[in-house]
Amino acid sequence: MNLLIKAGRVIDPSQGIDKVADLLVENGVVKEIGAGLAAPAGTEVIDAAGKYVVPGLIDMHVHLRDPGLEYKEDIVSGARAAVAGGFTSVCCMPNTKPVIDNKAIASYIIAKAKEQGLCNVFPVGTITQGMGGERLSEMGELKESGCVAVSDDGRPVKSAELMRRALQYARGMGIMVISHAEDLELVGEGTMNEGFTSTELGLKGIPRVAEDIATAREIMLAEYTGSPVHIAHVSTEGAVRIIRDAKARGVRVTCETAPHYFTLTDDAVRGYNTNAKMNPPLREAADLAAIREGLADGTIDCIATDHAPHHIDEKDLEFNEAMNGIIGLETSLPLSLGLVRDGVLTLPALVERMSCRPSAILGLDRGTLRPGAIADVTVIDPEKGWTVTPAALASKSKNSPWLGAEMQGAAACTIVGGKVVYTRG
Amino acid sequence: MKAFKHKDIIALRDLSKEEIELLIETAEGMREVNSREIKKVPTLRGRTIINLFYESSTRTRTSFEIAGKRLSADTVNISPSTSSATKGETLSDTALNLLAMKPDIIVMRHAVSGSHYYLSGRLPGCSIINAGDGAHEHPSQGLLDMLTMKDRFGRLDGLKVAIVGDITHSRVARSNIQGLTKMGSAVFLAGPPTMMPPGVERLGNVTVCSTMKEAIQDADVVMMLRIQQERQGKTLMPNTREYSRYFGLNPENLKLAKPDAMVMHPGPINRGVEMSSHVVDGSQSHILKQVENGVAVRMSMLYHVCGGELE
C-alpha cells in the first residue's frame, strides 16, 4: 500500500524542512517530499491541507501495565490510546508484574505489540533485578531482546554505588539509563508538593529538593563515569538549572518533562483531587515557568507523558490512599501545541521534543522523514477542538486531570510503517 | 433567627465571620442547658448521629456524644480498627452502608486530610461534621477555643494569640488560624523550624516568630500544642528534654505574656514537656474551661447542621 499525503505543512527538523509539500510513502518507507507529486496507480491519497505532517511522535515514557496489571491498561488499549494521541512509538516502563528484567517478559511485550499492529512498542528493562535495587539486571540480554533503555522508574535506585555501576555497565552494553530522580527519604510520606498549598490542605509535602538532590547525584555520577544518563519527568526549577549547568559543562545528560509540569501547578490538587496526584508531584508557578524556559532553550530535550493508567477504584479514594499517576497519551499533543500557541516553542522545536530527540537519545531509527526512512508519520490538525471525556479516551483508565477540559489540536491521522493505523472521525 | 446554610462543617476556612459568630453565640446559649439539673432538651429528638472515629479519641468523641445526647438525639459510636482501604472496607463503602441506616449526621475523625470532603460528595442528605482530619482542620476545637477566649475577653478582635509547637502536624493550629483571622485577631507562631510548614504566614493574619519569647511577648493568649515523642522524635527534634527547654511554657516565660494572659491547650497534655505542671494547674490555665465549652460548641454545631430550628 502506497500513500500520498498531499499539501500539508511538512515539518522535519532532521532535514531542516518546514514547507507546504506532498509526502509520498512507498512500501512502508518515505519515498519523496516535494511539490505536486504524482500519485502512482493504487496510491491512497490523504488530503493534509491546513495540517502539519511530521515525523511520527515518540513517547519515551509510558506505563502500559501489561503483563500483570491489565485491569488498568494493556498493550492493545495502550496502543489505541497512543495512536489516537498521534504517537507512532511508545517506550513502556518495566514496573509491570512481573517486571521487565528478563528476555522472556521483553519478548512477550514485543510479540504482543506486533500482534496488535498499531504502534511500535519499545520496552524499557529494569536497572536492577526485580527492581529490587540490589543487583544489576542482565542489561546485555535485555538490549538484545529489544529493550531500548533501562530504568527502575517508580522505585529510584537508592544506592549511589549501584547507580554508578549501572551507568558504567549500561554504557558498555550500549543501553541508555533512565533515572527516576527522587531521594526517597526526602519524599518520605509526602503526597503532594511541599509548599503553601500543602500547608493549607494539611497534606504531607514532597520537597522540591528531593528531586534536585537526586538529579544532581545522577549528573555527578554520569560525569565521573563518563556515561550518558537520561533524567525522567523533570518537574522542578532546581533540576532544570542543574541539568542546564551540566550540559554547559559537557556532561552527557538528557532529560524529559511531561505536559502536566508545563500546564498545571499544585493548585490543581485543591479539593483533594486525586487526578492531580502523581510522582513527582505538581509544583508551583516558578517551577512551571522554569520548565517552559528549559523547553525553550533546549535544556529539556523531550516531552514524554509518563502515561500512568489507574483503575477508578485506585483513584476514587481519600487523597493519601489514591495511587500516583495520570494518563497522558491522548492529551499530550494538544497541550504541547499550546507551547507553540504561547510562543514558548517554534513548531520545528516542538517536533524535535516529541520525535527527533527521543529517537536520537534511544538510538531508534525513527524521528525523521528522510527518503528511505521507515514511514512513521503523524498528521496533525492544529485547529481541531474537542472535549476530554471518558468516552472520548481510548485508554482503559480515565484518570486525567483534564476531564471536562476543552482541547485544541489533535492527530488527524497516524501512520506507522506506511500503514494508516488511526484516522480521526 | 439567622440561618446557617451549610450541610456540613468541615473547615473553618469554609465559613464566614458571621457563620462563625452564629456558631459561637448559639454555643453560649447552649451552656444554659449544661448548667441545668436535667441537662436535656428535645431539640434533636428523633435524629440519629453516628460518631465515626478512625483515630482514637477520648475527649472529642465523648464531647460529641454528650452534645448529641443533651439535644435528645440518638448517638452511636463506631471506631473501625483501620482506615486503610487495602486492609478493610473503603471509606466510601463504610459510609454508604451507614447511610443506608439513615443517619442525620455523621461526625467523623479520620487520619487523611480532606477525607470529609470526599465523603460529603457521596452522602447527599446526611450532614458531615469534621472531628479532625489529618493535619488539615479541627473546627470544633477552633470554635471552642474561640468561645473560651471570648468568655475571658468579651471579644475576639484585636487579640494577640501565640500558638507554640508542631504547627506542621497540627489541625488545631490551622483551625485557630482560620477562625481567629476571620474574627480580627492576630496569630503568632513559634516552634522549631522543623515543625513550621512553608507559607504558613499566608494562611491568615499570621506572624512566624524565630523564638518562643517573641511569640508570647505581650500575648493575650498562649496556646500550647501537644508534642508526641513518637511523631516528632524521629528527625524533628533531638528529644523532649531539649524541646521543653526552648519551647515549653513555664511560670518564668509566661511572665512575658500580658499579666492576665490565658493559657490554653487542646489536650491531652504532656506535663513537663510542652507545659510545666505549675502552668497547667495555675490560675491562668483555661484548659478545663476549654473542655467544658467543647460540649456547648458541639451542641451548637449539631443544632445548626440540622437546620437550626427549635422544636
Spans of chain B of at least 5 consecutive residues whose pLDDT stays below 50 are none
DSSP summary, beta strand count of chain B: 9
CATH class of the largest domain in chain A: Alpha Beta
What is the overall shape of chain A?
A: globular
What is the helical fraction of chain B, as a range of percent? Answer: 25-40%
Polypeptide structure, described:
- The complex is a heterodimer of chains A (425) and B (311).
- With 425 residues, chain A is of the alpha/beta class.
- Chain A has two domains: 2-52 and 374-383 and 405-423, Urease, subunit C, domain 1; 56-362, Metal-dependent hydrolases (TIM Barrel, Alpha-Beta Barrel), CATH 3.20.20.140.
- Helix content of chain A is 31%, strand content 24%.
- Chain A contains 13 helices and 18 strands.
- In chain A, α8 links the parallel β13 and β14.
- In chain A, α4 crosses α7 (209-225), α7 packs parallel to α8 (237-249) and α8 runs parallel beside α10.
- Chain A starts with a strand and ends with a strand.
- The mean pLDDT of chain A is 97.
- By secondary structure, chain B is an alpha/beta fold.
- Chain B has helices at 17-34, 59-70, 91-99, 115-122, 139-153, 171-183, 212-216, 229-232, 240-247, 251-254, 277-280, 287-305, and strands at residues 48-53, 74-78, 105-110, 127-133, 160-164, 186-190, 206-208, 221-224, 262-264.
- A five-stranded parallel beta sheet of chain B has the order 7-6-5-8-9. Chain B has a four-stranded parallel beta sheet with strand order 2-1-3-4, sandwiched between helices.
- Classes of the chains: A alpha/beta (425), B alpha/beta (311).
- The interface between A and B is medium-sized, with 19 and 30 residues.
